[in-house]
Amino acid sequence: MAGLYGQQHVHRITSLEKGTWTSRSYREAVLRHLQPVIPYDAYCFTTVDPSTLLSTGAVTEDGVEAIHDQLFINEYMEEDIHKYADLVQSDQHTAILYASVHSNPESSVRYKNILLPAGFGDEMRTVFISNDSCWGYLTLYRKADRPAFTEQERSQLEEWTYSIAKMLRITSLTLIEEMKRESPAEPGILLASNALKLVSLNTSAEYWISQLRLMEGISPNTLPRPVRAVASHLLSQLQLEQSAACKSLCASPSKVCIQLPDGRYLMLQASHLKQLDGSDQIAVMLNQAMPQELLSVLAECHGLSPREREVLGYVLRSYSSKEIAAAMYISTYTVQDHLKSIFDKTGVSSRRELIWYFVSRFQLTDELTIG
């Protein structure tokens, strides 16, 4: 009877392919159909950029949101089992945590230090692959007083991944419009003095400044830190030019990309305006950035070569040096040379630090920011 019930819901999930959906409404519909067949107490359904595996927005609930930061750190900074990037490269795209750790809870930092203290006893993770690319992750959670997920439930979810992945790929086209819905259509422009005093701004810039002030919890009279950061960086570049200092530093763009609390990414770039009459000023452009733009922006900020950017893309997807070498048709020694150069340019010392830096910080490096 349970098998027949599950088959009916499988059909319902595949029937969703005929509907007209946004990315969010489709994921919400999938979650509704999953609940009767694979009961869960909490969930996180995330879409990702297939080229970098960076999140493009999650459908979640308060119980998971409360531990989101810990899960984020675990995914990118700690050794553990069933990492999303590992599941992407695995032949089996769905995995149950408790089934892997029940005899040895110490084997998973996530299970011992994050899930159990939060009252969860198990999680089931799935990655969605379509056309050889990953388009999203789904994690279902059960409370500690509930039975763990079963192999039958894992197999059922695995069967549904093809249809869900296809729809995540299709609705990714509408996701861009969803992400832009609340944003101004025109670019934001503000002018500031060399003393970082706001001179003027258009309506779009006023909107973005209000979002930044809300994020930082600062007063309406305070210029947000990212604006001060790019402006200060520009001034330092101008000083280098005037002193004929290192030309490579002078070429560094005064640009920053940060993630707002609602998931949108905001790009800021400063430019020097030479006044024909009066003191020079600084112009700052503010535009919404799409997730697929982030890697190139950060790579540009650090002066990575095209080959280094390609290596970085594979590192973010957790490829080993051997796998990167095979994909790029180069030797592992050349991969290591590229990695050493990337480490030097970004100021990190390991792959783990590199991934954490590019995934968690969309802003200028420490020496280019101000307090």
TrEMBL record:
Pfam families: GerE. SMART domains: HTH_LUXR. Gene3D superfamilies: Winged helix-like DNA-binding domain superfamily/Winged helix DNA-binding domain (1.10.10.10). The keyword Transcription applies. Keywords: DNA-binding, Transcription, Transcription regulation. Coiled coil: none annotated. Residues 297-362 form the HTH luxR-type domain. GO terms for biological process: regulation of DNA-templated transcription. The keyword Magnesium does not apply. Signal peptide: none annotated. SUPFAM superfamilies: C-terminal effector domain of the bipartite response regulators. GO terms for molecular function: DNA binding. It comes from the Bacteria. PANTHER family: DNA-BINDING TRANSCRIPTIONAL ACTIVATOR DEVR_DOSR. This is Helix-turn-helix transcriptional regulator. It comes from Paenibacillus sp. AN1007. The lineage of its organism: Bacteria, Bacillati, Bacillota, Bacilli, Bacillales.
